[in-house]
User: Fold these one by one.
Assistant:
Number 1:
Amino acid sequence: MTEFPVIHTNIWDAFWAIPLIMLLVWMLKVFLHVPSNYLSISATVIGLLLSIFISHPNDISAGIFMGFFYSAAAIGTYSSLKTAIKSYRSN
C-alpha cells in the first residue's frame, strides 16, 4: 500500500497565488475578452502553472494538488465578490 505524499506549503503561497490568479483571470476577461464560461478553466490552468513551476517545482504531485486548491479558492472568491457586488447594486 502506498502512502499519500507529504505536501509542504506555507500560508504565503496562498496569499500571493490566489490574488494573482484572480488578477490574471480578470485581465483575461477585460483585455482579451475571454467569454465567462472559459474563466474557470483559465483559472485552473493558471493555478496549475503557478503551483507546478513556482510554488512546488520539485514535487509534481504537490504542484498538481495545490494548483487545483489555489484555482478553486480563486474561483470561489471571484464568484463570491461578483455576487456580493451584484446584490449591493440591486439594493
Number 2:
Amino acid sequence: MWFNHKFFKYGVGTLLTLLIIFMFGKIDFFLLPFKKLVAAIFAPILASLILYYILRPLVRLFQRVRIPKTISIVLTFVVAFVLILALATNIGVIVVEQFNALTTELYNNFDISMFSKDSLLNNKFFASLPLDDLKERGLQLLDSLIDNSKAFFMSVVSTVTNISTIIIMIPFILFYFLKDDEEFSKKFIEFLPKKHVTNGQKILQDIDKALSSYLVGQMTVALADGILMFIGYLIIGIKYPLILSIFVTITAIIPFFGPFIGIVPAIFVGLTMNPLMAVKVFLLETIVQQIDGNFIAPQIMKQRLNVHPVTVILLLMIGSALYGFVGLLIVVPVYAALTVTIKNIYRIYKVERLNHSKLSKND
C-alpha cells in the first residue's frame, strides 16, 4: 500500500520530528539552558573555524617542507601574532582614536534636526511648493533610517565586543582544529558502514572545499574592498578614513548588501560635513563595487558557489531574522555545506536504487 512506501515513512518521521522540536520550543524552561550553552560556545567556535580556514594553507605550506604538524601550527601562530602585533603597533592607536571620535560624532552630534534647519528641504524652491506633508513624512522616514542604522552599527560593535571577551579561548580551539582536523574526519567515517566510507569521505571533502573557497575568498574580497575604499576616502577627503574603511571590510563579508551597509557611517559623517560629501561616498562605493565585480572577485573567487542571487538574498533575510549580524555571516556557507551534503546523499540514493533494481532483475 501507499502508506508502506519509504517516502511516506520518511516524510511522516520528518514531520513528527519537526513537530516535537516545535513543541519543545514552546517550553521556555526546557530550551533556556541549551540556548545559554549555544550562546557560550558558538562565538569562539565560529571565530576558530574562520581562522582555521585562513591559517590552514600556511600550516600545510610548512608541512610541505617536512616540518612536523605541531611545529607548523606553532610557527603559523607566531607569524599571525607578529602580523597582528605589527598592525596594532602601527595603526592601533589611530584606529582607537578615530573610532572614539567617530562614535562621539555619530551618536552625540548627529541629529535629525540638521535636515530640518538650513538644509535642502528648507531652501526657497521647496518652501514655494505645497510639500509640507511629504516633507514631514520624508523626515520621519529619514529619522527611522538613522535609528535603524545606528542600531545595526551598535549590534556589529556588540558582536565584536562579545567575541573579544572570550578571545582567550579561540587560540586553544583553533590549535586543536588545525592539529586534529584529519582525526575529526576519521572519527566521523568510523560511524559509517564500510560500503559508504568512500561516499562519506567525498561528502566531507566537498563540504570542506565549499567552506574553504567561500570563507577565504569572501574575506579576501572584503579586504580588497576595504583597501580600495580607504584610498577613495583619502581622495575625497572625508574624516576618519581608516576606521570607516575597516567597517566596510567587516561588513563586506556579507554578500550583496554588506558593502553598502558598510558605507552607512561614512554617509552620516559626510552629511555632518556637507551633503555633497555623502554623494561622493555613494559614488565611490559604486565605483569600487564595479571594480570588485568585474576584476577582483572573478580572480579571487574562481570557484564560486553555484547559488542564485535571489537565493542569496532570501538566505540573508532568513539569517538576519534568526541570528542578526552573525546570521548574515554564516547563513550562506551553512547553506552551501547543506546543499553539498544533500546533493551527495541524493547521488548515493540514486546509485543504491540503480544497483537494487539491477539485482532485482538478475534475481
Number 3:
Amino acid sequence: MRIQLACCVAVLSSAAAFADSKDPCPRLLAAFGNRLADAKCFVSTDLTTTNEATTPLNNPPFPNGLPDLSFTPRTDRNTISPDAPNRTPIDKIVPGVQLQARIASDPTGQGRFLLRLPNDWNGRLVVAGASGTRSEFNGDFAWSDYVVQKGYAYASQNKGVLNLQLTTAADPLGCRLNPTSRTFVHFFDNDPGQQFTRWASFMAQAAMLARRGVESHYGREARRTYAVGTSNGGYQVRRAVELFPGLFDGGVDWEGTYVDGGAPNLLTDLPPAILNFADYANGTPAFNPDSTAAKNIRAAGYPPDLPPVPVGGVATSLWSLYSNQFWEVTQCQWQKRNDPTYDTYGSGTGTYNYIARLSASDVGAQIAAFATSGRIRRPLITVAGTMDSLLPIDRHARAYARKVAEAQAERGDDDGDDQPAYRLYEVQNGNHIENFKNTFAQLEFIQPHAQRAFDLLVKSVEERAALPPSQCIPHGGQIQATPTTQAGHCANLFVP
C-alpha cells in the first residue's frame, strides 16, 4: 500500500497530464500509433532489477531440448556488468511504467525497443546501445539501474537484430566458437538485410520513439537526451553524436568498437591473435611471454597476457579466455557479414589478410559504409581499459581519439573553443569483460568509471562545468579534475 501511495504522489507531481488515469498504458501505446508491434506495457512497482519483472526470462528451450539463444535478456544483462556484489548499488525503489515491443517498421521483424518511465522523472532521457548482438535488456544492470534511480527515463534497442542460434559446420553462415571447438553458432546479423549499417539508425530510431513516449507520458518533452553504450553499443554512441546532434546532447561510450575502412579494424586485428595463440599456448614452455608467438600477438596491438591460473583443472591465461570466447568467433562473424566470398575455414581465420582482400572483394567498401568519422557534434567521453584483449586500446579507443583530433584539426579550430568536448579516460588494468576479474584479481572494473563519466558529462552539458582532461585512471583510483602524473595515456598497459 505504501508503494502504491508513493507511486500516485510521484505521478501527480511529475506527470499531471495522465494523473487522472489509473493505467497510463493505453494512452502511452496510443501515442505510438502503428510504430510498435507486439507491445507489452505495464505499471511497475520498481523499474530496477530488484524487481524480477524488469528483465524478462530468456527464451525457453526448443521442444527438442536445444537452447533458444535468439533472445536471452537475463544472460545479456550479465555480459557487461560485474557479478554481485559489484553491480550497480540499488538504494531505492523506482515505481513507473515499462514498455517493451518490436519496432513495426523493421522489415526483418527483429528490431526491438524498451522504454522505462519513472514516476519521479528528472526531465531527462538516456538511450542505450547494446553490446555484441545482445538484446535491448543488455544494459539493465550497468546502465538502467544507475540512471532510473536518478530519475532519468531510460530507453534501449537491439540494433535491429536477434542474437544467435546453435548450428552445424554445414551451415554456410556458421561460426565455430574457437579453433578447437565443435560448437557452431549462426548469428542473425549475418543474414540478408542485417548489414551493420543498421546499427546507427536503430540508435536514432530508439531516441525518436523514446522522446515520443516521454512527451505523451509526462506531458512535456525531455530537456536533454544522452547516449550510453558498451562495445558495439559504444560504437552506436559514437555514431549518435556524429550523425544525430538533433537527437542527442552528448554520450558516454564504454569500450566502443572502432570501425575504419582502412585500418585498424577487427578484421585487421583479430587474425594475428588467432594465428599465433596455439603456438603460444602449446609451446615449450607453454605460455612463454618471450616466445615469437607471444611477441607477434603483442606486436598486433594486444596488451600483455596474464600468467595462467588453474580454471577447472586447465591452465588458463587472460588471452586464453579471449581465445576461447571471442577471437575467432568474432572474426568469423565480421568476415561473413562484410567479406562473404572468403572461405572462412578453408582459407583460414588466422591467415585472413584484410589488406589483400581489399582488391579481391568489396570488404573495404562494406566496412567503410559504417565507419566512424570522428566528426563529433556533441560532447563525448570514451572510457576504455588498457588490458582489453578484444578491442586493444591503441587500435580502438586511442584510434578513435586520434580520429576525433584529426577531424577537429581539419575544421581549423585547434583551440577547441567551438568544438564539442571529447575526452578519453583510460582505466589502468581494465579489460573488455568485467567478470574476467573473477579469474584475474589484477584487473580493474570499468563500470564505476563509466558511470562517473556519465555524471561528469551531464554536469558539463547542463552546468557548463569543464570536463576533467583525458587521463589514465590509476589502478584503484578515479577520474581526477586535475590529474598530475596520469594525464594523457597510461604509460603501461599493465601494472601489478
